[in-house]
Amino acid sequence: GEQRDGSRLEYSDKIILPPSCLEKLAQLEIQYPMMFQIANPRAMERKLHCGVLEFIAQEGMAYLPYWMMENLRVSEGDIIQLRSVNLNKGSYVKLQPQLTDFIKISNPKVVLEQSLRNFSALTKGQTFRILYNKKKYDIGVVEVKRHGGDFAPGQPQAVCIIETDMQLDFEAPADYVEPPRPAKTPTPPSASPLSKSPVLQPMGAPVLDGDSSEEEEAAPSFIGSGFRLDGKAIKPPKAKASPAAQGGQAVGGGSGEAAATRLGVRIGPS
Predict the structure, then answer these.
(1) Residues of the chain under the 70 pLDDT cut
(2) pTM value?
(3) E strands, 86-170, where?
(4) CA–CA separation, 258 vs 154, rounded Å?
(5) What is the DSSP letter of 99?
(6) Looking at residue 179, what DSSP letter applies?
(7) For residues 262 and 255, is the Cβ–Cβ distance under 8 A?
(8) Tens-place pLDDT, residues 96-153
(9) How far apart are CA 208 and CA 21, in angstroms?
(10) Residue 200: count of CB within 10 angstroms of its CB
């Protein structure tokens, strides 16, 4: 296969066949729209389903979109196997963008719905290519369902999407990595200012090792020294004499020359 017109072929699933194919198909009285199963003879498990755009290719050649060649793993000049098939109309399809960039565009679902108008069929497991704002996006087909029941065992899961009412669903992009969830922090029981009150906070166990009354008695009230503002030395305070020292009485009646004996108490220096 090779590309003929990229603008018409590359972002669709339409192929271009030689005129001899049209003559053969006309004799078979096939149903319209024409649908085909295309396979790689060297890997028959790889099958796609597509439509036809024109019958103008050179004899012995077919023109395929490059994304189809990638899916089939064929190169230009390789042999392909082509057969006419009838496909049921699709009722449901789940698609998976290959890059997270696609879901960042504005309304990706609408973009896909418009892009699928260029396609005739979808096969489970294929990856097709669309163009939007001059950028290519690869879209994988994760699941397909058809009108009229489930697929028979061994039957290729493919549906026709031309003029059908089909539900479109998305799966997370193939390269999507879920961000780590932040650790949960316990929420306060109440937003009231009382929640921050020291009254509600635990004060800790009391220390009962010592008696505070003993510490208060043992501590001296003042153990420093003072000084005068004029710089002079501080005189020691004078002790006042007691009344007994000031007025002692003589023992005996007279005031003779003999030493009189006084009884008293002296406080301070003699």
Answers:
(1) 1-8, 185-228, 230-231, 233-270
(2) 0.63
(3) 90-97, 121-123, 127-132, 135-146, 158-160, 167-170
(4) 155
(5) S
(6) P
(7) no
(8) 999 999 999 999 999 999 999 999 999 999 999 999 999 999 999 999 999 988 988 8
(9) 105
(10) 8
User: CA angle at residue 66 from 147 to 2, to 5 degrees?
Assistant: 115
Q: Of how many residues is the chain composed? A: 270
Q: Which residues contact 119 (CB under 8 A, 6 or more apart)?
A: 12, 13, 51, 128, 161
Relative to beta strand 135-146, strand 127-132 is antiparallel
Sign of the alpha-carbon torsion through 97, 102, 104, 110: negative
Identity of residue 168: L
CA–CA separation, 80 vs 62, rounded Å?
9
DSSP 152-178: PTTS--EEE-TT---EEEE---TT--P
Rounded Cα distance, 44 and 83, in Å: 13
Helix (H, G, I), strand (E, B) or coil at 25: helix
Residue 7, CA distances (Å) to 30, 66, 233 in order: 28, 12, 112
